[in-house]
Design brief:
By secondary structure, this protein is mainly α. It has four helices and three strands. Helix 1 packs antiparallel against helix 2.
């Protein structure tokens, strides 16, 4: 489960007794614009499609992939804010900064 807010939280269960959660620390208020959540949904969907294509889907990999997607989404927002300022950012600016975000490991 991904709960989008000022701090995005990813929560997933590893089994019936163990759960994990990740609180994302990337992103900024400039991302509170129309379409930013759609960009996140598209990114997460693409990452999941890659997992299914590799036939590598289990609870831990699923949760870690969702956490990574949320992190990179926020990091792209940080790069966009550095370039444009938070006030003038659009959802398209997030997409444009994905290459920079994904270069970070």
């Amino acid at each position: 489960m991904v709960s989008k807010d000022a701090a995005t939280i990813v929560y997933y269960s590893l089994n019936d007794k163990t759960c994990r959660y990740y609180i994302n620390q990337t992103g900024n208020s400039g991302m509170a614009t129309a379409g930013s959540g759609d960009v996140l949904s598209g990114l997460l969907g693409a990452l999941l499609a890659g997992l299914f294509a590799q036939n590598d889907i289990n609870r831990a990999v699923f949760g870690k992939t969702m956490s990574a997607g949320v992190y990179y989404h926020g990091l792209a927002g940080n790069y966009a804010a550095e370039e444009l300022g938070e006030i003038s950012m659009t959802a398209g600016d997030l997409i444009r900064h994905f290459p920079n975000a994904f270069k970070q490991k």
